[in-house]
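hiii so um. not sure if this is the right channel but i have a protein structure encoded as C-alpha cells and i wanna go backwards to a sequence. like what aa goes where. can anyone help
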C-alpha cells in the first residue's frame, strides 16, 4: 500500500514536471504578472503619494502672489439699467395757417426763443383788402338797419292809430331782424379778416430751440404744406425714455407706488461720463411682448443742455439701497461644483475656501448675505492658481477700494 502510494506520488510529480517542462514559458510570465501587480497596487501608489506630498509641500512652501481686498461694510446701491433715447417734452412743427408769400423771418437757425416771439411774417396785403371790404359791407348794412328801425317805429305808431294793417307791421319787423343778421355776418367777416392778419404773424407756440430753416423768404406757403416752416424743440426740461426687463418691473413699481422720488442718472454711450441727474416721471401702461420690456420715462432739468434730442444715453434707475451690507469686489466671487465661494486670506498667510450667499451684484461690487465678515481679505486676482491651504503673498497696495462700476 505504501509502495503503491509512493509510486503514485512519484508518477504525479513526474507528470507535473513534464507539464512544466512542456510549458516552461508560463513561469516567467507568472513572475512578470506578480511583479506588475505588486507595482500597480503597492509601489506606484506609494510613489504617487510621495510625489503629491512633495508637490503639496512645495506649493505650501512657495507663496503665490495674489491681490486681496478686505470686505467692507457699507451701503450698496441697486440700479436698473436701460439704453434710452432723449425725448423733448414738446416738439412743434410750426406751419402757416394762411396761404401767402413768406415775406421775412425773424430768427436765426439754432436760436433759443421764448413763447410768443415773432418768427416769420406772411404777406398781409390780401387780408387787409378783405378787412376793408368787410368793414365797408358792415357800414352799409348798419345804415340800412338804422333806416329799417326808423320805419318800424313809424309803422308801430300808424298801427296804433289803425292806419295800417298788422301784416305791414310784421313785415317791417322781420325786415329789421334780417338787417340785424346781415350786420352780424359783416362783423364775423371783419373778425375773420383780422384773424387772418393775426395768422400772418407767425409766433413761437413754446419756448425752445429753433432748428434749421425749412422755407426761405419769398416762397409761397400754404396751410396744407406738410413740412412746415421750422421745428422747435423744448430743451428744458428734457425727458429720457428707456426700457427695462419685465423681471425688474415689480421692484420698480413697489418703490414708485410709495410716492418716493426715484433718482435716474444718464451716462454717455460708453458709460464713462455722467451727463445729467433726474428722476423717474412715469411708467408705460403695457409690456412689449416682442421684447419682454416696459418703457420708463425720466425727466431731467437739463439746465446746461447736457442732453440733446434723440441722443442715445445709458439710464440708471436707483431702486434700492442695501444698508450696512457686507461688500466685496465682484471679481472675488468664484463658482464651482461646490457652489459659490471666495478665497479668504487667513492670518497665517494661507487661504481657505469659504462658501458664500450673494445678495446683489452691482457693477464691480457685490453684497454678501452670509459667508464673509467685514475686514476679512478675499482674493480678487490669482484665484485660479489656488487651492485649500495654499500660501499666498498679497501684492502691495491690494487693500485699496475697488473701482466702482457703472
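sure thing!! here u go:
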Amino acid at each position: 500500500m505504501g509502495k503503491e502510494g509512493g509510486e503514485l506520488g512519484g508518477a504525479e510529480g513526474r507528470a507535473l514536471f513534464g507539464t512544466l517542462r512542456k510549458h516552461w514559458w508560463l513561469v516567467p510570465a507568472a513572475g512578470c504578472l506578480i511583479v506588475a501587480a505588486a507595482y500597480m497596487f503597492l509601489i506606484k501608489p506609494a510613489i504617487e503619494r510621495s510625489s503629491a506630498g512633495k508637490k503639496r509641500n512645495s506649493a505650501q512652501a512657495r507663496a503665490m502672489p495674489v491681490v486681496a481686498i478686505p470686505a467692507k461694510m457699507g451701503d450698496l446701491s441697486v440700479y436698473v439699467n436701460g439704453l434710452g433715447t432723449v425725448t423733448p417734452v414738446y416738439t412743434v412743427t410750426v406751419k402757416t395757417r394762411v396761404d401767402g408769400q413768406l415775406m421775412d423771418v425773424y430768427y436765426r437757425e439754432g436760436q433759443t426763443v421764448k413763447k410768443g416771439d415773432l418768427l416769420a411774417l406772411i404777406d398781409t396785403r390780401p387780408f387787409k383788402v378783405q378787412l376793408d371790404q368787410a368793414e365797408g359791407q358792415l357800414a352799409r348794412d348798419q345804415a340800412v338797419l338804422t333806416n329799417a328801425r326808423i320805419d318800424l317805429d313809424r309803422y308801430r305808431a300808424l298801427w296804433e292809430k289803425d292806419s295800417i294793417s298788422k301784416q305791414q307791421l310784421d313785415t317791417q319787423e322781420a325786415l329789421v331782424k334780417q338787417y340785424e343778421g346781415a350786420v352780424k355776418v359783416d362783423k364775423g367777416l371783419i373778425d375773420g379778416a383780422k384773424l387772418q392778419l393775426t395768422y400772418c404773424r407767425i409766433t413761437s407756440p413754446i419756448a425752445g430751440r429753433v432748428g434749421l430753416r425749412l422755407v426761405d423768404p419769398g416762397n409761397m406757403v400754404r396751410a396744407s404744406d406738410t413740412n412746415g416752416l421750422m421745428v422747435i424743440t423744448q430743451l428744458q426740461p428734457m425727458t429720457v425714455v428707456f426700457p427695462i426687463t419685465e423681471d425688474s418691473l415689480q421692484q420698480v413699481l413697489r418703490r414708485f407706488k410709495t410716492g418716493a422720488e426715484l433718482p435716474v442718472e444718464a451716462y454717455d454711450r460708453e458709460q464713462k461720463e455722467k451727463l445729467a441727474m433726474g428722476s423717474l416721471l412715469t411708467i408705460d401702461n403695457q409690456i412689449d411682448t416682442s421684447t419682454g420690456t416696459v418703457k420708463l420715462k425720466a425727466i431731467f432739468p437739463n439746465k446746461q443742455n447736457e442732453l440733446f434730442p434723440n441722443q442715445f444715453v445709458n439710464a440708471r434707475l436707483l431702486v434700492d439701497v442695501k444698508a450696512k451690507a457686507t461688500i466685496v469686489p465682484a471679481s472675488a466671487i468664484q463658482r464651482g461644483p461646490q457652489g459659490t465661494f471666495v478665497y479668504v486670506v487667513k492670518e497665517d498667510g494661507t487661504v481657505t475656501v469659504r462658501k458664500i450667499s450673494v445678495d446683489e451684484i452691482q457693477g464691480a461690487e457685490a453684497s454678501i448675505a452670509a459667508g464673509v465678515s467685514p475686514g476679512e481679505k478675499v482674493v480678487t486676482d490669482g484665484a485660479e492658481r489656488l487651492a485649500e491651504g495654499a500660501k499666498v503673498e498679497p501684492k502691495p497696495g491690494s487693500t485699496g477700494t475697488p473701482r466702482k462700476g457703472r
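oh and The chain is about 35% helix and 35% strand.
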